[in-house]
Amino acid sequence: MELAPELTGVSPTEMRSTLARFATGVVVLTVGGEHMHGMTANAFSSVSLDPPLVLCCVARTAVMHDAITAAGHFAASMLRGDQETSARWFAARDRPLGPAQFDEVDWVPGPATAAPVLAGSLAWLECELADVHEAGDHSVFFGRVLGAGRGDGPAGLLFFDGAYWQVDTSERRR
């Protein structure tokens, strides 16, 4: 069900501006195989530990939407604080499509799906598509986690107030 902005009282511009005040992690979603594609995302979350499930939200007009739907799998690379260049690359609308977009980054094929996993990431997950729900102009993709790994580094990349930031946990308070 879609609600018109005048019924919700919040315009798309106001919604974007308000949610910019919510800090989020940054991931690069990827699909391997014949539908190879990558996309920077911050609408990503853990859903369940048993079974292991995550979700990502992707605009129905995005190339990634069709890639995940066709491939039935995706990977998510959680970016390290110094990987802002990769985040910007996979957010750029003028980058090449298909395998050529991965020429600019170091990556390895995920062992379960062959979806690209960005080298140097803080962590990564490979997922098979478990369910999809339409939600406004996006779809919510639920992925059953097939594999996971962790990298090194004390700093994670965040997106807040329209900009990238690093959070460094090397001097974490306990």
Automatic annotation (TrEMBL):
InterPro entries: Flavin_Rdtase-like_dom (IPR002563), NADH-dep_flavin_reductase (IPR050268), Split_barrel_FMN-bd (IPR012349)
Segments traversing the membrane: none
Keywords on record: Oxidoreductase
One Gene Ontology term of the molecular function aspect: FMN binding
Domain Flavin reductase like positions: 19-166
Stored Pfam families: Flavin_Reduct
Domain of life: Bacteria
Any GO BP annotation: pyrimidine nucleobase catabolic process
Entry protein name: Flavin reductase (DIM6/NTAB) family NADH-FMN oxidoreductase RutF
Biological source species: Saccharothrix texasensis
Lineage, broadest ranks: Bacteria, Bacillati, Actinomycetota, Actinomycetes, Pseudonocardiales
